[in-house]
Write a structure and sequence with these properties.
Main location: periplasm
GO cellular component, one term: periplasmic space
Radius of gyration: 19 Å
Strand content: 15-25%
Protein name: ABC transporter substrate-binding protein
Family: Belongs to the bacterial solute-binding protein 7 family.
Structural class: alpha/beta
Subcellular location: Periplasm
Length: about 325
């Protein structure tokens, strides 16, 4: 487990600014917000809508600069930098948070087939248990401000349409190299391959991998439609991104500013989910127009049944996971 202290002791720091920021405010406290997504990705909306809400709440109080497209590093680097206090605010893939911090609660959002749609996600994200999962990050030196679904995950294959559960068998499938994803996709029948997000295009193009579990936003933002033409709609779990503030930056705020950044985080969730939902549906038509075969899985219910046991298994790992599962099932 990496902690703020160990990162500071080992001298982890972020690189220099590589490009002009997307958003800049005229005055106030400097705030850098970094993320790894393309500007069309909902992860960018998560950052920009947070900055816009902050300006509405406290005009001129913050001078915000947003750095998308991995300009200041990939998700893991950004997360480590936030733990260390070398980054102010980041928006990162939530699946990496347990890996870096040792706090497992964030895994709850990716229990397979637990959360049915974007509206369901929003209800949970803004609920008491959603806030508890964010607050659980404080011992790691992180202030959780927002959790949003930036795109339900589906399945992209290079070689063939994946129409049945048997079609998954043996496919070398890119995953984020974390225990939860490895267990899910081995249970489905794939051969999981851990790769950084930025290497997916080249790996699909060269045959290092056969497939990737991915969302529409990433298909468009990373131009994956150029190398993969077989897209199966499975909606197996959300892709949650989390807005995080370093403890160092938080400690430098007064009570009014802390209240403003907290409220700005909550407001950004609703706007990001609306954007992600629209992009998901409209983006499927864009993919079709670019030659992608968008299909359904004929035996989706069998896929659900095959991975169903993982939910109870992971619920036993942390009470926050169990609480979110219970809340999701009650509201479904």
């Amino acid at each position: 487990m990496i902690t703020r202290r160990t990162l500071l002791q080992t001298g982890v720091a972020m690189g220099a600014v590589l490009a002009a920021p997307h958003v800049a405010r005229a005055a106030g406290k400097m705030m850098r917000i970094a993320h790894g997504a393309n500007e069309v990705h909902p992860g960018h909306m998560l950052a920009t809508s947070f900055a816009e809400a902050l300006e509405e709440l406290m005009p001129g109080a913050f001078k915000v600069s947003i750095f998308p497209n991995r300009q200041l590093g990939g998700d893991k680097q950004l997360l480590e930098g936030t733990v260390a206090g070398t980054m102010d605010v980041t928006a990162v893939s939530g699946v990496l948070i347990p890996l870096v911090t040792g706090r497992p609660g964030m895994n709850a959002w990716q229990m397979p087939f637990l959360i049915r749609d974007y509206d369901h996600f929003g209800d949970l994200a803004l609920s008491d248990v959603g806030q508890k999962i964010l607050d659980d990050l404080r011992p790691a030196g992180l202030i959780g401000l927002a959790t949003a679904d930036t795109g339900q995950r589906n399945f992209l294959s290079v070689k063939k349409d994946v129409l049945t559960l048997d079609d998954f068998a043996g496919l070398k499938t890119r995953i984020v190299p974390v225990p939860l994803h490895k267990e899910i996709w081995e249970t489905v029948g794939c051969s999981p391959v851990g790769l950084p997000y930025g290497e997916v295009y080249g790996a699909l193009e060269t045959g290092v991998i056969d497939a990737v579990e991915i969302n529409v936003s990433s298909m468009l933002g990373e131009n994956l439609w150029e190398v993969g033409k077989h897209f199966t709609l499975t909606g197996h779990y959300p892709w949650h991104m989390v807005t995080l503030m370093s403890q160092r930056y938080w400690d430098g705020l007064n009570d009014e500013e802390k209240a403003a950044v907290t409220e700005a985080g909550r407001r950004s969730v609703t706007k990001t989910l609306a954007y992600a939902k629209t992009q998901d549906l409209e983006g499927r038509e864009v993919l079709k127009s670019r030659g992608v075969d968008v299909v359904g899985l004929n035996d989706l219910e069998q896929m659900r049944q095959r991975v169903a046991g993982l939910t109870s298994e992971w619920a036993a790992k942390d009470p926050l996971i169990a609480e979110l599962i219970a809340s999701a099932n009650q509201s479904s």
